[in-house]
Specification:
Structural class: mainly alpha
Radius of gyration: 15 Å
Strand order of the largest sheet: 1-2-3
Shape: globular
Oligomer: single chain
Number of strands: 3
Number of domains: 2
Largest sheet: 3 strands, antiparallel
Number of helices: 5
Length: 116
């Protein structure tokens, strides 16, 4: 069963609202909503994610932005800030099934590999 089929909107929202759910389950529900939820919920979660990123990693700046305004981050810079190897960042991206979201083929001059 694919990740998309493991959840539905009702269950994912209930998990996010539950006061004592474990963090792993909560993050999986949030990830599902970010990828497959309605645009209005995706926007709320992306705004919250961007605010949290700016708060926790103020030195991490987007390398560029997509046409719809989404930040794009350089994987080498992500690795440096997180203190891990760039290969590990790429592995996490692949593990999460985000390979199709990379911007490798986009004309961003100031990036090595990028992800948004």
């Amino acid at each position: 069963m694919s990740f998309k089929d493991e959840w539905n909107l009702e269950i994912a929202l209930k998990i996010l609202q539950h006061p004592t759910v474990d963090s792993q389950l909560w993050s999986e529900a949030a990830e599902w909503l970010l990828r497959y939820g309605p645009p209005s919920i995706q926007k709320i979660l992306l705004n919250a994610s961007q605010a949290a990123t700016e708060l926790q990693f103020p030195e991490l700046k987007p390398s560029d932005f997509t046409a719809d305004g989404m930040p794009v981050y350089d994987t080498a810079r992500l690795a440096d800030i997180l203190g891990i190897a760039e290969d590990e960042v790429r592995s996490i991206i692949n593990e999460k099934g985000l390979e199709e979201d990379t911007a490798d083929n986009l004309p961003f001059a100031n990036c090595s590999r990028t992800v948004h």
